[in-house]
Amino acid sequence: MYGRYIRTLAEEAKEEAKRAKQVDKLRRKEERQRAKELRAYRGRCLSRLDSLFGWFWRLIITKLGEDGIFLAVLGILVAVISFAQDYVVVQLNLARIYLYDLAYDPTSKYFAWISVPVLLVLFSSGFVHLVAPQAIGSGIPEMKTILRGVILKEYLSFRTFVAKCIGLTATLGAGMPVGKEGPLVHIASIVATLMSKLVTSLDGIYENESRKTEMLAAACAVGVSCCFGAPIGGVLFSIEVTSVFFAIRNYWRGFFSAVFGALTFRLLAYWYENHETITAIFKTNFPQELPYDPQELVIYALIGVTSGLFGAAFVFCHRKYVLFMRKSKRLNRFLQKNRFIYPFVISLAITSIYFPLGTGQFVASRLTTRQQIRTLFSNFTWGTENLTASEEMIVNEWRSDYSSIYFNLATFIVTTFFLTIAASTLPVPSGSLIPIFKMGAGYGRLVGEVVALWFPEGIRVGSYVSQILPGGYSIVGAAAFPAGVTHSISICVVISEMTGQIKHIIPVMVAVLAANVVARLLQPSLYESIIMIKKLPYLPDILPSRTQAYLVYVEDFMVRDVKYIWKGITFKELRDLLKEGAKIRAFPIVDSPNNMILLGSIQRWELLKVLDLHIGRERRLQVAAQWQEEARSSHNRRLFKGIFLSQIHILFQEAHLEFKAD
């Protein structure tokens, strides 16, 4: 480790490649010999079928190793997984509504409403803990760390894949205010890793670390695109939230795989959900002529500024809540011994708040997440009186006998804000972008309805009157609030693809940029905040909005009094060094204090282990026993020349022996 090279790296690589080639040649020869010996015990027909199957399998795997086929299969598999999860989640939500409708009195309705979600959350928590605790949480912060070159143990294993898929489906089916975008990115990365291992068994190209990183980058894009049905925005969003330096050669890989994933996801919805054609997930139909007035851009900018403030507040509250839960040692010990208590309490509290006959009537709790977003994007003003029957059904979900749509929308935003923070701390797979997206849509809808209330006739532009479209405000809010939380710009493209709405791209861009500027000045992004909470080995970025950061030099904050070890250091110096640097985990090793050439480093525990091996109690006892044996074998009892009496006294005390000095 601390030696010097005597040969060049090229010569070493050539010899290593030559040895590997010889070993591989011998291995293939032995395999052919064993196969030939085994054929003698099989029939001729069976042997030929076995050879044909082996050739066909090698051909498939070899073709799978090509980039195009590998990326296409990756996109299709992730899309199938995403659609299957959505299908199961819908069935679980329908089962809960069915049980709720079967009950007659309020008490039985309450227990019917909370029973399924609580059981699903407890099942998800227990299953993930037993199978793979690495599946807990989002997945995007960990993928940011992995793409930086850090290896997280068992994070991309098959066990984690099973735990993530099943746990996420159960959590979403429970109706918790969580999303699937982060876990789906994690799932796509695991699928890419497992496929790479499969191909590596016959084709060694995927053993290259650079190649693995390229496929993981494409997998992140597939995960986002299969969640939102947005291939272009999915690629751009995945680059923003997972990568700092993105290789251009990965660009086409991300788009290629994301298009296959999004197309398969929408085709499955077309085949199995009786859709008329392949459309956007949240299709909107705003009027073509003058969808907004230029004077409304000021309101859109204000939505962006306030969304940036709310996004920073969300990140701040989330971090404070998680740190509070971690700092309470008594609470942590209690929850570790009783792992099901916290999931039970949180899931029970959330489902109780969402109970339709209670506070749930103020937050449209009977609607699923997709239904809530579709109604928030609806193309009519809720506050008008002339509503059709279908429009009246939508509005009735957002008002009650005791409150108006404005109170319900405000309550919906505040409730989702705090419940999303609480749900994100559950020990289950969960994301946060979908609830944040929903909060932004509700906030935009609230602003749009208030503006429509102030200008019931619309805004006059010359001889033309521009009608207020609250649905357009909802789209702007749905883009601005996630932008403030994630610090991303590409959410504009994701919103356009999700809604099929390009007419509001300028208001969306204005709001998103305003939200980014405000949020970056106040807080880090949600994913970077989680990285700091988990203390993952990740180097944060220099905030580009603060020019003062570029005026700071390394010498302004570097550690100058470095504790180091050199060749020829005495035991006393080494002991003093360990005492002074009690909190230092590793020590650099240099050749001498004069040259200060770095040779390597050693961990503190390794250094202590080496010291104990050479001068520890067992070593001293061995030396004492050896000296005792030499003293007994000698005819005289005189001490060895050059050894102090005090040293012999200490050694014999360690060995529990008695001696007399003449």
From TrEMBL:
Record gene name: ClC
Identify one Pfam family in the record: Voltage_CLC
Keyword check for Repeat: yes
Q: What is this protein called?
A: Chloride channel protein
- Main location, first listed in the record: membrane
Biological source species: Artemia sinica
Any one annotated GO CC term? chloride channel complex
User: Which ranges carry the CBS domain?
Assistant: 558-621
- Keywords tagged on the record: CBS domain, Chloride, Chloride channel, Ion channel, Ion transport, Membrane, Repeat, Transmembrane, Transmembrane helix, Transport, Voltage-gated channel
The topology of this chain with respect to the membrane is:
Multi-pass membrane protein
The answer, when asked if Repeat is one of the entry's keywords, is: yes
Query: Transmembrane segments in this chain: where?
Result: 68-90, 110-136, 156-176, 216-239, 251-272, 297-318, 339-357, 405-424, 436-455, 475-495, 502-522
* Gene3D superfamilies in the cross-refs: CBS-domain, Clc chloride channel
Where does the record place it? Membrane
InterPro entries in alphabetical order: CBS_dom, CBS_dom_sf, Cl-channel_core, Cl_channel_volt-gated, ClC
